[in-house]
Hints:
15% strand; alpha/beta; 2 domains; four-stranded mixed beta sheet; 15 helices; seven-stranded mixed beta sheet; Aspartate Aminotransferase, domain 2; Aspartate Aminotransferase, domain 1
Amino acid sequence: MSGAPFTIAPTAADSPLRVSEPMPSPGTAPAILEKADRFLDPDGDYTQVRAKGLYPYFRAIEVSEGTRAVIDGHEIIMAGSNNYLGLTGHPKVVEAAQAAIAKYGTGCTGSRFLNGTLDLHLELEERLSKFMGTEGCVLFSTGYMTNMGVLQSMASKGEFIFSDKDNHSCIVAGTQVSLATTVRYRHDDMAHLRVQLERVCNEHPAAGKMIVSDGVFSMNGTLAQIPELIALAEEFEVALMIDDAHAVGVVGEGGRGSASVFGLADKVDFITGTFSKSFASLGGFVVGTHATTEYIRHMASTHIFSASMPPANVATVLACLDILEAEPERLDRLAEISDKMRSGFASLGFDVWTSQTPIIPVVVGDMLTCFQFWKDLLAEGVFVNAVVPPAVPAGQALMRTSYMATHTDEELDQILDAFYRVGVKHGVIGTNGQPGTHGGNGSNH
């Protein structure tokens, strides 16, 4: 899911200007800017949350050392990062980035088409192709631009994209710029997807079609139903694209992503991913056949008209890939931690939905309680992410927690105990759980 944390009630100013309405007086602010003033309305959510000291976003991190960070001069345990393998400060990763800057400088100052292709880019594309078991790979400057570029280049006017309603914002943006007709199906509802496929295939049998889904959904931490998606794609002869931003380097054989969990990676037409999570960098990629990746390379506007990944970012990913392949035990530890925290939260009485990955949501309820819960957790020395509607359903605001392979059992127990105290304070849990009895693989207090 995606969306801004605050909504603005529509007003007459949101409607098109009618001819009969008087024209604005000279010197008045342009009407299009009025929404910004309404956002700062004294009675609006944004101003009220700020006034109560509960605003949880854009907090400056002064020091970051993996599982520990410093905010406002206080050390906290980081349980709100996508640094799944814990590699952002790894000595080999830092050394690789520094060496790349020394050799190539800080940026490429151009697109891959022109002066922005380094031998490092070609090396990483070859390595990722081999790692993912595909024929080709294309790098993009961000993960967001990857999904936009793939969808824009592969689906055009007169064609159709079938998109899960909980897909990430970058997929939504990609469907909007593609000019294809987008058909959204209910989240993870394969029966509803089938109905939509049957309808469109009957009405437009010759049109190009593709299904797109997150591999791991970023808010609830669940895996998509990959085998069912593949079966439907094959039955209706449509392409399948999986966004594995939260899956590559996290789940599957050797960290190869969501389809790899089921041994079906070779059945997916496009797999996209990002370097801003397990690979401790910034950028994105798509892998597929030689024909499709070469087509995307030459047709995706976000690839053609954007400066390429800086050398330090590319070198960082290469170093992370080395570590991932050499130390698969990091994935084992990450899975162990995820199991411990899911069972720990559940034993304390929290609702964690149906998480299957290191992304573990803890449902709190309404928005203001969520923000207060977040603030109290921070005071307890734990940083997580407060997520409110429309990013999640109304009444299900939550703490999005996420874990690293480098978290210690002691840190995990401290997180659980802090959640217990804050949960009791706000009535989110009752007395069905007790601090220090949350089980899992770590030690109890």
